[in-house]
Amino acid sequence: MIELVSAERCIACDKCVKVCPTNVFDRGPDGVPLLSRQEDCQTCFQCEANCPVDALFVAPVTHPLPDDRTVRDERHLDRTGLLGSYRRHIGWGRGRTPGSLRAVGPRLPAPGGRPPAPPITS
Amino acid sequence: MTTLDLTTDVLVVGGGPAATWAALKAAGAGADVVLADKGYCGTSGATASAGTGVWYVPPEPAAREAAMASREALGGHLADRRWMARVLDQTYESVNELADEARYPFPTGPDGRPLRNGLQGPEYMRRMRMRVRRAGVRVLDHSPVGELLADTSGAVAGATGYRRQARQPYRVRAGAVVLATGGCAFLSGALGCNVNTGDGALFAAEAGAELSGMEFSNAYAIAPEHTSVTKTAFYTFATFFHEDGTVLEGAASQGGRSVIARALLEEKVYCRLDRADAAARAAMRLAQPNFFLTFDRLGIDPFAQRFAITLIAEGTVRGTGGIRLTGDDCATTVPGLYAAGDAATRELICGGFTGGGSHNAAWAISSGGWAGQAAARHARSLSGGARTRRTVPLGGAGLRPTGTPGPADGFREVVAAVQDEVLPYRKNYLRHGDGLAASLRALDDTWRRLRATLYAGDGDAVRARQAAAMVAHARWMYTAALARTETRGMAKRLDFPAQDPGQHHRVVTSGLDRVWTRPEPLTTAPREVA
């Protein structure tokens, strides 16, 4: 569930407000998005993938974590490489290679002696 | 605020793969197109967040034969070879178009040839959004359709809805409508699926359309406990464990998932991906970066550490039931109404086995394109008066209560009630006639109450309609499941564990206040497009 909107990093581009499939955000008075409907967050990570400045962090668990400060600790998330990690892994952002170009996974074991399927790519 | 009033040839409802392919091909056929999505076209739905394999098979006879044969028995021999062949042809052509025209960055395989058997969700769907917009389609994001409109003959003639961010009602008059709203996962939290609440099936039934294969609706996906990433391919490398650390015998991602469900009724179940070698581990990260989001953020090494898992319901997203089609053009029994993707039945290519992943992706691409083209033809065939024809609204439950409207947040109680009957493994996964009948009685009660009272205005209208759609969906599922007194495909019945050759037919269902079913013999050849 979305836990962090970094006011420090946010450039008020409204991208997350637009792309969230479940309409979690509203534009705040200062341009920084508000988590108006956090309970509607489906933990799909799309806002993070689309944030051009890595100002958002989606915690992996699907319920709110009011008592876990680490999921809203920007310095900690930055230091551990988690902030912006999804965008980095899919290769979105200037100068990066689209992750899909390198998406050659393992072949899954084929049941019943059938010829092996091509490598998984998504 | 004044209503946004639009007129178009084709209205596409939805924003995922099937919707975007429908919009693209309708526009390509010369139609004026409006696409209305409940969320944001480009991030909405299962595919955008999860990514997908694609049933992409080169046109080599042996490879095509193997592809068609692979799921026939699993699907209880309810699929149709002619449909499989045309979906394989269309998918091959369309995925190549995605590479050549849309410049989707496919990877290169170990043999130096491009690999086109999978699509990364965010990349695929952002490109589909761009293509749709370049084709001149008017896209309405965050604009859930509330109900369909029909003309006085009963033909579908458009829709109305509410633009949640603009806070504005809208109406689209259309020559034809394509429903591409996805399946129904009952707000279970499966990855990207909380927009998939079966809205299109409700709209279709209100217009008088039929559904098929709704008994194939008990798909459950593996995910780490309390998380959303329901991607299951890599659990092929898993060993599953009891709470005490001993191996859970018989448990497997494929062919042993019900063992996991049974164990979860009694205890926690753990998993470790310890069958993957070093090369596979490295490759997995490249293929599915989203699979690792959960583990990296929880600080778990899934190859070395055991982690608790759960099963999350995916309903008809990974099941195969949906709106029944009457022909190659993806028409329904209602004039002017077409269906595509997971909103439509996928029995034609999957039979009664899950269409999860590659088959559903191929189906979305193919059926979307066909529905879009046919909708464009239908709109063109109407006289000029179609744009000004008188329309009547078709919506009922959650929109026009028959009694005194209840509280504005009445949808919460309805959602909880339907989830109580469809999410538990004991009721939906491990199905028994007695349990199905009891659930159906509870769901019928819920329907009667919501029909009388459920209502929410403007911004929350969509929530009331979603709740109603889910209850309708669950009733079709369990009515169809009770009608199939055997075990076929994924529709397993504990009280009828064997396949019955006497029930080698499809089960058609529909109805709202009164739900009905009828068997459909397989000998009925789908009609050809003239």
TrEMBL record, chain B:
<feature type="domain" description="FAD-dependent oxidoreductase 2 FAD-binding">
    <location>
        <begin position="9"/>
        <end position="351"/>
    </location>
</feature>
<dbReference type="InterPro" id="IPR003953">
    <property type="entry name" value="FAD-dep_OxRdtase_2_FAD-bd"/>
</dbReference>
<dbReference type="InterPro" id="IPR036188">
    <property type="entry name" value="FAD/NAD-bd_sf"/>
</dbReference>
<keyword id="KW-0274">FAD</keyword>
<feature type="domain" description="Fumarate reductase/succinate dehydrogenase flavoprotein-like C-terminal">
    <location>
        <begin position="431"/>
        <end position="502"/>
    </location>
</feature>
<keyword id="KW-0285">Flavoprotein</keyword>
<dbReference type="Pfam" id="PF00890">
    <property type="entry name" value="FAD_binding_2"/>
</dbReference>
<keyword id="KW-0560">Oxidoreductase</keyword>
<dbReference type="Pfam" id="PF02910">
    <property type="entry name" value="Succ_DH_flav_C"/>
</dbReference>
<comment type="function">
    <text>Catalyzes the oxidation of L-aspartate to iminoaspartate, the first step in the de novo biosynthesis of NAD(+).</text>
</comment>
<protein>
    <recommendedName>
        <fullName>L-aspartate oxidase</fullName>
    </recommendedName>
</protein>
<dbReference type="InterPro" id="IPR037099">
    <property type="entry name" value="Fum_R/Succ_DH_flav-like_C_sf"/>
</dbReference>
<dbReference type="InterPro" id="IPR015939">
    <property type="entry name" value="Fum_Rdtase/Succ_DH_flav-like_C"/>
</dbReference>
<dbReference type="InterPro" id="IPR005288">
    <property type="entry name" value="NadB"/>
</dbReference>
